[in-house]
Design the sequence.
RNA sequence: GCUCGGGUGGCGAAACCGGUAGACGCGAGGGACUUAAAAUCCCUUUCCCGCGAGGGAGUCCCAGUUCGAGUCUGGGCCCGAGCACCA
């Protein structure tokens, strides 16, 4: 084996920083990355989740995601689409504000410099972003329309204000959304969350629960993302049942149950301690104990209430009538019943619910069996809740005895409906979206409070309500926004009557900023409407969306909700924003999560400096499946760099005379097919492996590669390593950008193998292989196989059976 | 507890519809070139037995279906993520 006869001239050596600088400038000058939004005929909107521009700069995880999207986008462009790949910044929010407080600067000054740094890094990475359409959520030109979105919800009756028990973080001194509370602690700082009562703005996302749920079936999303959303929306099917209170008043307790079939076993009722009817049903004798119990539970924060293992409660002194049995059952209050779910009241069926069993045992309430395994003795006492509904039937349930659980649910619900004692309902776990934040760094909620006119929306023509520059923006624990300390800002005349009024001083949740940004990108620069109808019709919904799994529930759900609302309001003609969504994986380093404290954070700048952006990008995509992430190992990068250098020298030294090698060309066309199949599946790691494999074939033996053998590879690699690809494309004498050259043609006849390896098995065990024509017959293959001693020695007598899979294997069963 | 992922060489990983397990890359070992080193190039590299030809075992564990199972079915163990007193 000799060497490939090429002593690279030193001037031909691959210098990434030269190549990358050259092409980034060239792209800028010729507008290569610009999309003709108005003139596009085959629009392809390749969106990635926009980053929060942190002071630390671009994280390798950001770059992993953006590169993955960029490859897909560039590939679609090579397929002939007009690809739009915008990128902006999600720069409002607690994160920026806390960081600014920590280092004693103002976010209004910090963010622009962070954005400049991000922009520099993103350009360095060679993304095909059309920077004419960038945006930042902190720009008044942007948040003017975030405020407009709020006003649309208000107009459509979907925004309302209420006093609510909210999660209060004593450390960040702000209200948190339910989703920002992880196991009772603040998601950001880890402090234990307390309960507080505050006036808050809410969006009625719960009204949209059925649609948010049913539309999921129409989306090209992975099952895991859709399941996460389904679980979050949390649909339960059951019945609402009214239990008449045995008092002089004509009132009843409404409960929700998923098990109406067990109503004959309901031996008591439980109200949540804060339930309004508690005042009605508490008797004089029980007044003190009920009052004390309510006071005790009110003090508890949500956390200790949800994690306390012992169930406690007190009797109210009153009874209600079980509508099925006609028997009086006691009404209790207990903290295991939550006011915010269902009706805030339950029927206790200790025989068939583990929690009720525990409670009834503790307080010696009657336990009745109403479901039993078929043929089982219905009078056997229960020593645990019986919840196995497979092949079980109702017992002790009057006319409903012997029905299956499912049939019992239907028939008993129908009976309750007939008697006007209840009805079948679906209820949802999802809560309305609290968007108020008692913070500084966000868009002010566009509302004015007037003594005479009440709550008055800021007229649309007065938007934006500018966030004032205030030096003192640190929140305190008064629960009011920092803006409320700035009278010169919040004192305004009422837009209706002109009298002295005051502004809402809360700002809105960052999730609102990001719930509509994808609508804005095509219309960046349009100043009289949030999204221009023509552009919107052409470019939306988003063709392909890529982002992190951590947003699989909230951001995606809020975006879907806002899109539906805007659709219902007549502003959009589609109700689902993201036709296709894929979540990328996470990058770890040497098997461990990257973190500052571990000191194992990969700084993209240093790696791009050392290896070049092309190598870094390609390595990130090579280290594991894009949707799963991978393990970043410094040692691994060199292999990718070697691969790029081999391609570089092969192209530099290629010949145009003579004919290409048929075997090499066969492998080339197989590679074109493989890469073209892998990229749309986001199987980038295997696409790169296929190209490496091809390079190994190309460079085998002492031969100078032919131009036809290398030129298409430049196109194949271009989505991954765009700068090198452009440089080599130019070297090959091409005038246009490689990204306007189209995807290399695939010729199936050139890719076809003329001999294949056929595996020969005896009883399923591999005993040899045959080099044969792909269309060999079973008989010919069998004869050939039996002539091999390595095979025939295992075959005694006539085979009982022969299995032949064309182009794959021959299995002889003896 | 429930839901969703995942478990394959020394390591990152491939195997797309049930058909030759370990492609590709890293690391390691050996060699060529070199005064030497780096770089580059070539060979070997799942484990066990064997000088070799070859044989045996092997994809977390235990069963099953099948001519054939990493892949399908049932049961179990472990890791990761999300939800969780949701009636």
Sequence:
């Amino acid at each position: 084996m000799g060497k490939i006869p090429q002593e690279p001239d030193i001037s031909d050596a691959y210098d990434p920083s030269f190549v990358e600088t050259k092409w980034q400038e060239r792209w800028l000058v010729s507008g290569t990355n610009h999309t003709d939004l108005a003139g596009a005929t085959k629009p392809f909107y390749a969106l990635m989740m926009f980053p929060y521009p942190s002071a630390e700069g671009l994280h390798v995880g950001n770059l992993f995601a953006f590169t993955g999207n960029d490859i897909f986008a560039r590939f679609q462009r090579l397929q002939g689409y007009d690809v739009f790949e915008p990128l902006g910044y999600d720069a409002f929010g607690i994160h920026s504000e806390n960081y600014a407080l920590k280092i004693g600067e103002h976010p209004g000054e910090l963010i622009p410099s962070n954005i400049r740094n991000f922009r520099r890094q993103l350009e360095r990475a060679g993304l095909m972003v059309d920077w004419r359409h960038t945006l930042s959520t902190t720009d008044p030109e942007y948040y003017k329309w975030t405020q407009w979105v709020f006003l649309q919800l208000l107009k459509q009756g979907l925004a309302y204000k209420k006093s609510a028990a909210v999660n209060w973080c004593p450390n960040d001194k702000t209200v948190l959304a339910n989703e920002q509370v992880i196991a009772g602690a603040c998601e950001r700082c880890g402090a234990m969350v307390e309960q507080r009562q505050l006036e808050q703005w809410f969006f009625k996302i719960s009204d949209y629960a059925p649609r948010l749920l049913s539309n999921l079936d129409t989306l090209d999303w992975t099952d895991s993302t859709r399941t996460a959303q389904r679980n979050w929306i949390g649909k339960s099917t059951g019945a609402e049942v009214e239990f008449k209170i045995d008092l002089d008043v004509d009132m009843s307790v409404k409960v929700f149950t998923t098990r109406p079939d067990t109503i004959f076993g309901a031996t008591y009722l439980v109200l949540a301690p804060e339930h309004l009817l508690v005042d009605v049903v508490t008797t004089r004798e029980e007044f003190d104990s009920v009052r004390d119990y309510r006071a005790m539970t009110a003090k508890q924060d949500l956390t200790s209430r949800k994690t306390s293992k012992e169930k406690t409660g007190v009797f109210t002194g009153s009874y209600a009538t079980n509508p099925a049995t006609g028997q009086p059952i006691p009404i209790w209050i207990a903290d295991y019943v939550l006011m915010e779910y269902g009706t805030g009241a339950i029927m206790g069926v200790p025989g068939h619910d583990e929690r009720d069993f525990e409670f009834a045992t503790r307080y010696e309430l009657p336990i009745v069996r109403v479901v039993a395994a078929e043929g089982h003795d219905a009078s056997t006492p229960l020593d645990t809740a019986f919840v196995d509904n497979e092949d079980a039937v109702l017992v002790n349930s009057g006319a409903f005895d012997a029905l299956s659980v499912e049939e019992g649910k239907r028939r008993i619900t129908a009976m309750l409906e007939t008697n006007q004692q209840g009805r079948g309902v679906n209820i949802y776990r999802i809560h309305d979206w609290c968007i108020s934040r008692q913070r500084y760094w966000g868009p002010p909620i566009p509302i004015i409070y007037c003594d005479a006119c009440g709550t008055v929306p800021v007229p649309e023509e007065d938007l934006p309500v500018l966030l004032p520059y205030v030096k003192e923006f640190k929140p305190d624990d008064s629960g009011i926004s920092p803006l409320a300390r700035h009278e010169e800002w919040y004192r305004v005349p009422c837009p209706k009557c002109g009298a002295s009024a005051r502004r809402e001083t809360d700002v809105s949740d960052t999730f609102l900023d990001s719930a509509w940004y994808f609508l804005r990108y095509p219309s960046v620069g349009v100043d009289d409407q949030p999204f221009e109808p023509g552009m919107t019709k052409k470019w939306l919904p988003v063709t392909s969306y890529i982002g992190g799994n951590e947003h699989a529930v909230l951001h995606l759900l809020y975006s879907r909700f806002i899109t539906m609302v805007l659709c219902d309001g007549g502003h959009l003609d589609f109700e689902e924003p993201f036709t296709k969504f894929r979540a990328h994986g996470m990058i770890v380093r040497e098997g461990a999560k990257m973190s500052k404290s571990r000191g194992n954070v990969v700084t993209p700048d240093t790696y791009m400096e050392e290896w070049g952006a092309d190598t870094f990008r390609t390595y990130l995509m090579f280290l594991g499946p894009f949707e799963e992430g991978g393990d970043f190992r410094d040692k691994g990068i060199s292999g990718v760099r070697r691969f790029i250098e081999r391609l570089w020298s092969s192209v530099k030294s290629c010949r145009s005379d003579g004919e290409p090698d048929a075997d090499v060309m066969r492998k080339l066309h197989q590679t074109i097919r493989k890469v073209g199949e892998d990229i749309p599946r986001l199987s980038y790691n295997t696409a790169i492996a296929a190209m490496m494999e091809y390079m190994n074939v190309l460079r085998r033996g002492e031969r100078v590669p032919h131009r036809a053998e290398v030129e298409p590879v430049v196109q194949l690699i271009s989505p991954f390593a765009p700068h090198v690809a452009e440089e080599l494309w130019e070297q090959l004498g091409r005038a246009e950008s490689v990204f306007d050259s189209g995807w290399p043609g695939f010729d199936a006849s050139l890719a076809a193998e003329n001999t294949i390896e056929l595996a020969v098995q005896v009883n399923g065990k591999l005993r040899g292989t045959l080099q044969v024509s792909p269309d060999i017959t079973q008989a010919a293959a069998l004869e050939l196989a039996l002539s091999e001693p390595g095979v025939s020695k295992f075959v005694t007598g006539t085979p009982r059976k022969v299995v032949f899979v064309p182009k794959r294997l021959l299995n002889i069963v003896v």
